[in-house]
Design brief:
Number of strands: 0
Helix content: 55-70%
CATH topology: Four Helix Bundle (Hemerythrin (Met), subunit A)
Radius of gyration: 14 Å
Distance between the termini: 14 Å
Length: 122
């Protein structure tokens, strides 16, 4: 699962440098990377997870299992809408600004945490 998370993470990393990609596409792959990293963490503690895309539910399952998502990663849970709502409809940011570089950095930090927490090789 973590290998697939890394593959999804590669897409938004490339999209930071190529802004022609729609926010929906960027957000979808960012959401998928976080989702699969959370599922990797759940697998590592022998917790089964439902086939869902809701990052908040996956984080809740971690908490219920005695694990804690560090507070500074809570903002990544907002990416859930890119795996559900904006997967099928247009994302119109209005006053919202999607800080792609910031999202990519935070996901990279989260991926490192999960890799270390789960004892996975680099």
């Amino acid at each position: 699962m973590f290998i697939m998370a890394k593959k999804d993470y590669d897409a938004p990393k490339l999209m930071v440098k190529k802004p022609g990609f729609a926010d929906e596409v960027f957000g979808f792959h960012a959401q998928e990377a976080v989702e699969k990293a959370l599922k990797t963490w759940l697998i590592s503690i022998q917790h089964q997870y439902p086939k869902i895309h809701d990052l908040r539910t996956l984080a809740r399952l971690l908490r219920e299992s005695g694990e804690e998502l560090p507070e500074h990663f809570e903002g990544l849970l907002e990416l859930s809408t890119f795996g559900t709502v904006f997967r099928y409809q247009s994302y119109e940011p209005f006053d919202d600004y999607l800080d792609r570089a910031g999202v990519v950095k935070k996901i990279g930090d989260f991926m490192s945490l999960v890799r270390d927490r789960c004892g996975l090789p680099e």
